[in-house]
């Protein structure tokens, strides 16, 4: 703890740093100084990660010790006129009076270097990443509250774009406002039945037989795509409610299919936040029993990037899923930052090649070589390969030549409601080889 700060109203009890109240007072004062002297000042919002994972796996005591060490490292890079503050949870801020953009970026570089060394806590060597957002007076704001909000919005943009540092700009405010609106409407939709599920068939490339379906969430009332509302759910923590709603709805639909004499293997997408939840596997097993689906073929899909971002914890969670009899699929393969060498360490049954490599495959020799190599290597590790986004016959033909196992995309079928999937299956006798 940083000693000498005792006022509980103005200083954080854990770290000893100024709290948000004192930070706002100092920002307001420095804005007045900057107005008189025609100078500028900057605020850096600092969000170290992944604190939530550390708290859930190692405990809050370790997390608290880590926060104290973060405060000490941040305090070591500031001038006497600067203010390092602990806002809330795992969020910090640095106020830099009389600072231009170049100088602020230099401070950010010092912070990054200061966080490169591991944090030693209770015999654990822990590494933290950083998302930082910068707001500068008078360019981006005119008050303390605007400055804090702008820096926070910029830090969130850094997180979303997987960058370390972002400088605030005006369009971020509109984006943040839109996200807030989507968050409120999505929370209501989850709890009041405003979402639907559809199921996209996955077919054997050689035989055309249906091998399974992937469940996809849709928000039809507001016509907001999953690519828009799912990132909002992930950023706000609403993804937990969304995932659990999706899983229970999927299992209910599976029970309906089973009662009608159909057992379509079912793939469901799970976020990394839910993947690392210690209760997820037990919850799924409990719901399987409730719906009399104990032996139902179930696959959990997780994105490559999320697994690699939390590789140690994620691999342990995936192993628990497999021990319970569930299959594991690595989604969006090729879009993350892992290498093919990671395949040998992943407790997966299949990987899905991202649609960005499949679309227009016939006219892209580079993607052809990559897809062919991924299929061959995956097979060496005993993994099945699913190609996403198949929209043309020539793409399916190439995948067949390369030995791809399973294909999915609009050329084979659009996503279908549960009842429509049964009709589709019966009409084609389970095969889609010559759908068009």
UniProtKB/TrEMBL annotation:
Residues 179-429 form the EAL domain. Signal peptide: none annotated. InterPro entries: Cyclic-di-GMP_PDE-like, EAL_dom, EAL_sf, GGDEF_dom, Nucleotide_cyclase, Rev_trsase/Diguanyl_cyclase. Residues 39-170 form the GGDEF domain. One of its GO terms (molecular function) is cyclic-guanylate-specific phosphodiesterase activity. SMART domains: EAL, GGDEF. It comes from the Bacteria. CDD domains: EAL, GGDEF. Pfam families: EAL, GGDEF. This is Cyclic di-GMP phosphodiesterase Gmr.
């Amino acid at each position: 703890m940083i000693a000498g700060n005792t006022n509980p109203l103005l200083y954080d009890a854990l770290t000893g740093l100024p709290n948000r109240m004192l930070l706002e007072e100092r920002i307001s004062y420095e804005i007045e100084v900057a107005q008189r002297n025609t100078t500028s000042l900057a605020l850096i919002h600092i969000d170290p990660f992944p604190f939530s994972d550390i708290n859930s796996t190692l405990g809050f005591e370790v997390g608290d010790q880590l926060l104290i060490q973060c405060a000490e490292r941040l305090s070591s890079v500031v001038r006497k006129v600067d203010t390092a503050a602990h806002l809330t949870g795992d969020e910090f801020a640095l106020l830099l009076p009389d600072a231009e953009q170049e100088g602020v970026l230099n401070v950010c570089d010092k912070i990054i270097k200061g966080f490169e060394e591991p944090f030693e806590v209770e015999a654990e060597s822990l590494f933290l990443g950083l998302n930082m957002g910068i707001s500068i007076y008078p360019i981006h704001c005119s008050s303390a509250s605007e400055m804090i909000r702008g820096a926070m919005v910029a830090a969130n943009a850094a997180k979303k774009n997987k960058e370390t540092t972002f400088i605030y700009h005006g369009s971020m405010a509109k984006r943040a406002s839109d996200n807030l609106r989507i968050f409120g409407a999505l929370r209501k939709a989850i709890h009041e039945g405003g979402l639907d599920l559809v199921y996209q068939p996955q077919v054997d490339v050689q035989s055309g037989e249906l091998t399974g379906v992937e469940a996809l969430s849709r928000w039809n009332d507001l016509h907001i795509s999953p690519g828009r509302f799912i990132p909002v759910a992930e950023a706000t923590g609403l993804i937990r409610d969304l995932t659990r709603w999706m899983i229970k709805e999927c299992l209910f639909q599976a029970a309906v299919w089973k009662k009608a004499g159909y057992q379509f293997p079912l793939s469901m997408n799970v976020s990394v936040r839910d993947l690392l939840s210690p209760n997820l596997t037990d919850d799924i097993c409990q719901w399987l029993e409730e719906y009399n689906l104990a032996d139902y073929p179930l696959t959990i899909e997780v994105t490559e990037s999320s697994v690699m971002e939390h590789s140690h914890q994620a691999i342990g969670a995936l192993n628990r899923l497999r021990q319970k009899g569930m299959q594991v699929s690595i989604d969006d393969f090729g879009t993350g930052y892992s290498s093919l060498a990671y395949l040998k360490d992943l407790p997966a049954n299949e990987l899905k090649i991202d649609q960005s490599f499949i679309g227009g495959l016939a006219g892209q020799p580079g993607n052809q070589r990559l897809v062919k190599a991924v299929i061959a290597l995956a097979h060496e590790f005993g993994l099945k390969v699913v190609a996403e986004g198949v929209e043309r016959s020539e793409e399916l033909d190439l995948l067949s030549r390369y030995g791809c196992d399973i294909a999915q995309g609009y050329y084979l079928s659009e996503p279908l409601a549960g009842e429509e999937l049964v009709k589709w299956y019966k009409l084609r006798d389970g095969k889609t080889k010559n759908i068009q």
